[in-house]
Write a structure and sequence with these properties.
The complex is a heterodimer of chains A (261) and B (780). With 261 residues, chain A is mainly α. Chain A is built from seven helices and three strands. Chain B is of the alpha/beta class. The chains are: A mainly alpha (261), B alpha/beta (780).
Chain lengths: 261, 780
């Protein structure tokens, strides 16, 4: 074989050169690039909760004690991400139970496609907004902007000529949290469950308002212990009338079989 | 600077995101509710239909301390099943704008002066009397609304037709679904859909014809999407002239050129016939083929409603044979229609197969796209043809469904009949209907004139000419919504015209008024609305009106009628008029064809469908198994027509009144947005809705914008033969026109697009075409 006697040395030389270059690039690159990456997110667990930091037992205890006001941020809490509280939640709604407005810009592509659920179905940290996306309690609906208005202006409408206009509408204070039927009983649910029957969407996770985070999200059957409060008109918050409708007949409710002809 | 490119880009992106987010929430004032002292536990919930569109969502309104404070969808509601849209959820805020009209205003020496409402109404009565004495009873008119409650409409009809004795009564529903009515009348001889919203639960294919349901009928659109989620065979096809949210959410979008829906419908018929998809038994037994007038020009020409004295025309129906029909369809091959409409021949074949497949149940849905059309009656007929040819009609899930835009366009305008040609039962030209009205109203038969006079646009033309001297406008805002706005505004401001406006907020229409009457709004009074699916919904008076002088429209009408001496005809008080008028109105509709639910039933339930026969609602009409009004002993009975059959019409494709040319090279289309309802006088005073769409804009294609060097938000100048408007451009927004077309929402009185629209209308329905005219677009 016509071996080049210097091959081994040449190869070694090339390898050394490449190695040094790589180190040099890495070193120089590091000094130039110094990538400022946001605090690392916790590793995704294999459950379906998404990349959400879980609450430590101490924090959970603190939540139970004072509704989470003093709960320390989880160890991995991203720098600058605010804790949502009920005041923020209410500030986005016209009244307790109203669909919240969208407090961030909605770009045109998103507005026509409405794929809001890519962030709001399971939640998670959104670096652009430095915040955790609140989780929707009704991800089955696709036409999100049907109910959720965008917030493009905070000014009220006034006619071009004439006095400025202001809406004088008012609504009662939101319900108290921790309404107990009996001392030490589980708190009642002070709102309708219509469109809001996925309790943990709002009562668990890092975007849940601190005052209403559930101390035991691992218990799945919320309505086992938490009863709904009922208004004075006999309507539960589900809106079903407790009073019988004297004119409603079973034949009218069911009608003839729609399958006929 | 120790930045590098990557970091800089990153910072820029972050800053952009932050500024966008901040720009989106300046001050976050939309959420700062002004809390009352009441506790939320004090709320009681009461049923009411929504104040806004024709879907007719049943709402539960939270009342606390005499104020409406919250809203939720009523889970018992047949239309919405507990859902609502952003307008419905915020609807009660429309009651509390700070500029609510609370006092009557009367023009004295050119200035509007506050007076007690009784003084203003005395003046209205005096002016009306003066005009009748001087110029005859046809010199006074009323222009009402598809938002009038059933009692409001009934009072207006009885007053004008039964008391004054003039047919000068029309309403804004003429602008919104008159073609749907003439479509029903010419095809079936009886108005309103044969099916109901339960069809959404049974259909496999939904075809929207020029109807952006995602924004205009969002609750029904969600019902469609919900069906598709649970049943993978459900297919949604969106026929549209620009890309909308509905088209994006559909399974198949087909973009067509304006007005070519006529050709597309005939092409589908052609495919159904050619491919043997016709339900021959159904056609043989239940369909009669007709042809009518088609000439555009000449003494018998249909024209486009642009002539000064154009008004309601009559068709001359003649029977046609099947062979004639097949020959007529030969012009509408997929290839020929592709050239006209721009929809690919293969897409047309797909659509034909969906309609033709006997295994699929098809629902066609439309609203303003087909109705605001100079051949609106025809396109309604042509879509019914598709369902008649395939026998896909009057069965659950097989349903041509004409949607409406106003909460009581059906309940009041169409059923009570607040049109010039209508009576609460039948038409003025029908002797039997006049006899019935005279008897129920207790007025002389001779008093009710047999000839229709002015529909909406001709009514304002007559005001401009001076044939009308007095007009009373209730519950609508024509000075924003009439096409070719400049002419009609100028006309109403002329010297000896007297304009009375009953409304709840100052609008461009109250700006032209000589008398402004403050009205009680929605749940400040008792009333009923009727929605698109023949469902009547009652609401109680839940809160006090904004002031003691805010009277319901019906009570205002009643006061003036009594003042003019018609005490006997209006024996009711402001407390019991709603019940009294409704009970009297029900007498007109008795029977299996149109029986209305009794007052007590309406009060007890969120809503009841008519015909209400023997305590049961008819959900699918004309189907003997489901409709007790069918009497011919066959499976189907189209009892609206004398022969018991539905009409299949030969209606050709024709060009619109105005098309783009070298001088005006673009198409101008107008319409609504989700957040705002009609002229915006209510929704713009709701902070969340106004904040979401604070002003109107002109949607255009990005290539057109590039050619004009227009960027998103730049002002563009729109010019038509009728007017000029400068308005911000919107590029790649929520609606995306194709090249050569622009779209402008009409809700914004500061960007009055109806200065530009054409007042051409359909010859039979007289509904104007707001969807197409020629416009020049320039950078401002």
């Amino acid at each position: 074989m016509n071996h080049d006697p210097h091959l081994g040395r040449r190869l070694f030389g090339i390898a050394v050169f490449l190695g040094l270059s790589a180190v040099a690039v890495a070193y120089v690159g590091e000094s130039i690039v110094k990538p400022k990456i946001l605090p690392p997110l916790p590793v995704l667990q294999a459950d379906d909760k998404g990349p959400l930091p879980t609450i430590s037992p101490q924090d959970r205890e603190a939540l139970r004690q004072d509704g989470g006001r003093s709960a320390a941020a989880p160890a991995e809490w991203p720098e600058g991400a605010p804790q949502r509280d009920l005041a923020t939640v209410y500030s986005r709604r016209a009244y307790h139970g109203a669909p919240p407005v969208i407090p961030h810009a909605v770009d045109n592509a998103l507005e026509i496609k409405q794929n809001c659920n890519s962030c709001h179905e399971k939640g998670g940290f959104v670096p652009n907004f430095k915040a955790f996306a609140p989780v929707t309690p009704h991800p089955q609906y696709e036409n999100c902007l049907q109910c959720h208005a965008m917030a493009k202006s905070s000014e009220e409408f006034s006619r071009a000529e004439g006095p400025s206009q202001k809406n004088l509408w008012t609504s009662p204070k939101p319900p108290l949290t921790k309404q107990l039927g009996l001392a030490s009983a589980p708190p009642k649910i002070p709102h309708s469950l219509h469109l809001r029957d996925k309790c943990l969407a709002c009562h668990d996770g890092p975007a849940a308002p601190v005052e209403i985070r559930c101390p035991h999200p691992e218990r799945g059957n919320c309505l086992q212990c938490h009863a709904q409060s009922v208004d004075s008109n006999g309507l539960s918050h589900l809106g079903r009338s407790r009073k019988a409708d004297p004119f409603r007949r079973s034949s009218d409710a069911q009608g003839l079989s729609p399958a006929a002809p | 600077m120790d930045f590098n490119r990557r970091e800089l880009l990153k910072k820029m992106a972050f800053a952009a995101a932050c500024s966008a987010a901040v720009a989106g929430t300046p001050g976050v004032s939309f959420g700062a509710w002004q809390e009352s002292d009441a506790n939320s536990a004090d709320i009681t919930w009461h049923k009411s239909p929504c104040r806004f569109c024709g879907v007719g969502c049943s709402l539960l309104l939270g009342i606390s301390n005499g104020r409406a404070v919250a809203v939720k969808g009523d889970p018992r509601g047949a239309a919405n099943r507990g859902l609502a849209c952003v307008k419905g959820f915020h609807s009660v805020q429309a009651l509390y704008g700070s500029d609510r009209l609370k006092k009557a205003l009367v023009k004295k020496d050119g200035k509007m002066v506050e007076v007690p409402i009784t003084e203003a109404l005395d003046l209205v009565a005096a002016k009306m009397k003066e005009s009748i004495d001087k110029h005859g009873k046809d010199s006074v008119a009323m222009y009402t609304s598809g938002q009038s409650t059933i009692p409001d409409g009934y009072a207006a009809s009885k007053f004008m037709k039964g008391c004054i004795g003039t047919n000068n009564l029309d309403c804004n529903a003429r602008l919104c679904m008159a073609s749907a009515v003439t479509g029903f009348m010419t095809s079936f001889g009886i108005d309103e859909p044969m099916g109901c919203y339960e069809d959404f639960d049974h259909a496999d294919v939904f075809v929207t014809w020029g109807n952006n349901m995602a924004e205009m009928h969002p609750v029904l659109f969600s019902r469609m999407l919900d069906r598709r989620q649970r049943d993978k065979k459900v297919t949604i096809v969106a026929l549209e002239t620009r890309t909308t949210r509905s088209g994006v959410a559909s399974d198949k979008q087909m973009i067509f050129q304006p007005n070519t829906d006529l050709a597309i419908a005939n092409c589908i018929s052609h495919l159904i016939v050619k491919n043997g998809w016709v339900d021959a038994d159904f056609v043989k037994n239940y369909v009669s083929i007709k042809k009518g007038r088609t000439a555009i020009e000449g003494p018998d020409g249909l024209g486009y409603g642009l002539g000064e004295k154009d008004g309601l025309q009559k068709d001359k129906p003649e029977p046609a044979t099947w062979e004639e029909y097949v020959k007529f369809l030969e012009d509408y091959t997929p290839e020929a229609v592709e050239k006209i409409s721009g929809v690919k021949a293969d897409d047309l074949r797909t659509l034909g197969a969906l309609y033709g497949d006997p295994a699929r149940k098809v629902m066609s849905l439309w609203c303003m796209g087909m109705n605001q059309h100079t051949r609106g009656t025809w396109i309604n007929n042509l879509v019914y043809n598709l369902h008649l040819l395939t026998g896909k009609i009057s069965k659950p899930g097989n349903s041509p469904f004409s949607l409406t835009g106003q909460p009581s366009a059906c309940g009041t305008a169409r059923e009570v009949g607040t049109f010039t040609h209508r009576l609460p039962h039948g038409v003025v030209s029908d002797e039997h209907s006049r006899h019935m009205a005279a008897e129920i109203w207790g007025v002389p038969y001779e008093r009710i004139p047999s000839k229709p006079t002015y529909s909406a646009v001709p009514m304002f033309r007559a005001l401009d000419r001076g044939d009308l001297k007095f007009i009373w406008i209730q519950c609508t805002n024509p000075m924003v919504t009439l096409p070719n706005h400049n002419r009609y505004r100028d006309g109403s401001l002329k010297e000896d015209r007297f304009v009375v406006v009953s409304d709840v907020y100052p609008t461009p229409t109250t700006d032209v008024a000589d008398v402004i009457l403050p009205a009680a709004m929605w749940i400040e009074r008792e009333g009923m609305y009727g929605n698109s699916e023949r469902r009547t919904q009652h609401f109680d008076k839940l809160i006090a009106p904004a002031s003691e002088d805010c009277w319901p429209d019906a009570v205002q009408t009643m006061y003036v009628a009594k003042k003019l001496g018609f005490d006997k005809e209006f024996p009711w008080t402001p407390e019991n008029y709603a019940e009294g008028m409704y009970r009297e109105y029900c007498k007109f509709q008795e029977g299996a064809l149109h029986g209305m639910a009794p007052y007590e039933v309406l009060k007890a339930r969120p809503g009841v469908l008519w015909p209400y026969v023997n305590g049961k609602s008819t959900r699918w009409r004309f189907n003997s198994a489901l409709d007790p009004a069918c009497t011919n002993g066959k499976a189907f009975h189209f009892y609206g027509n004398k022969d018991g059959k539905a009409n299949l019409w030969l209606r050709p494709y024709q060009k619109p009144a105005e098309s783009p040319d070298t001088e005006y090279p673009f198409w101008l289309n107008t319409g609504r947005v989700l957040e705002h309802w009609h002229s915006g006088s209510m929704t713009r005073r709701i902070p969340a809705l106004h904040g979401s769409v604070p002003e109107s804009y002109c949607e255009m294609h990005e290539e057109d914008a590039r050619a004009l060097e227009v960027y998103d938000g730049d002002m563009v100048k729109l010019t038509t033969r009728r007017g000029v408007l400068e308005i911000p451009a919107r590029i790649n927004g929520r609606g995306r026109p194709v090249r050569g077309q622009v779209f402008v929402p009409f809700f914004d009185e500061n960007y009055m697009i109806n200065k530009l629209t054409i007042d051409a209308f359909d010859p039979y329905s007289n509904q104007p075409d707001y969807k197409k005219c020629a416009v020049r677009v320039e950078k401002a």
